Amino acid sequence: MRIVLGVGGGIAAYKVASLLRLFTEAGHDVTVIPTEASTRFVGTATWEALSGNPVSNSVFDDVHLVNHVRLGHEADLVVVAPATADLLAKAATGQAGDLLTNTLLMAHGPVLFAPAMHTEMWQHAATRANVETLRGRGAAVLEPASGRLTGADSGPGRLPEPQAIFDAAMALVQGRSDYQLPLAGRTVTISAGGTREPLDPVRFLGNRSSGKQGVALAVAARNAGATVRLLAAHMEVPAPAGVEVQRVETALELREAALAAAADSDVIIMSAAVADFRPAEVSDTKIKKRDDTADPVITLVRNPDILQELVEQRNASRAGSGQLVVGFAAETGDSQGDVLAYAQAKLQRKGCDLLVVNHVGIDKVFGQDSNAVVILSRAGSEPQEASGTKTEVSEAIIRRISFELNHVSPRA
Is 371 a known active-site residue? Predict the structure, then answer.
């Protein structure tokens, strides 16, 4: 595949060398077009050495090859990283002052922007308008990562990690029939991991959830173009780059975070394993085991039903009528019914739009790298099965969510 890699004039340009390596090691032919400003951070010799191709940012070099037209025409994919506020503005307004902006105007294939800038610049109304303009024309614009910026500040504006940009670029090419990421412009909130309910300062009630499925969902939603907010309980895997992460521990903390995040979310996916019960009392000191005392009795109380509350909050808000709420059910069968029977009853009780059902047990689902699920719909469509790695299952779930958003009328 022929890729044009545009490099903007930000300090994050040094990270793009790793992105270039990912492209070339995957067998792609990459032409790097740095802006003049970006060469103050990384010189053209670096790009030529890593790409194996000559590098220029002038429309007057190799004029006989008509590069300002040819490169955009021939590219199967154009990636711009870092996409600075200046570059986004130039692309949105159709400027053509150098080889990169000319190439963007001539691009026939998909275009992916990976922004990086200071938080205030990213959140400025002008930048947000430029991003929406580009997305409206079919370009994919990733959300920047949150974290430490140049200097002492932290916030959204970091360049996503090279692997995250590479993954998003490959996902974009695979869906290139319309050059539009299915969740572009959407905000998706995902809960992941297992909650922990404290008994005392050192002990807690927990579960076996590793967070792998929730993290895989966050990656799939990010790669589909969404702005992703991850509500992370205890996880055994790191949170992915390019998503906003909010840490929680208990079910009550998750409830507060989820209800607040739902206010501006198009999709809420509750994949976390939430404790059904918590201790009625939490000891301020470690509960001691003494020979001369009776065994402790721990009284449990119910935790709130977060999924049901999210549905109720959505249904009570006219502004949230188009919001999609997706639940997860970890079920086991027994003499009273099988897994799907319990799941169908839960779907009706909770009122969510989709319910993703796992058949759990020892050495099943929790902590594993593979999964098999059934997706149930409140609308009554046929159950949909998905199996494979948790990445593959997540991609199937995100495809179903994208379909629901784009083909189902808003709810009353």
Answer: no
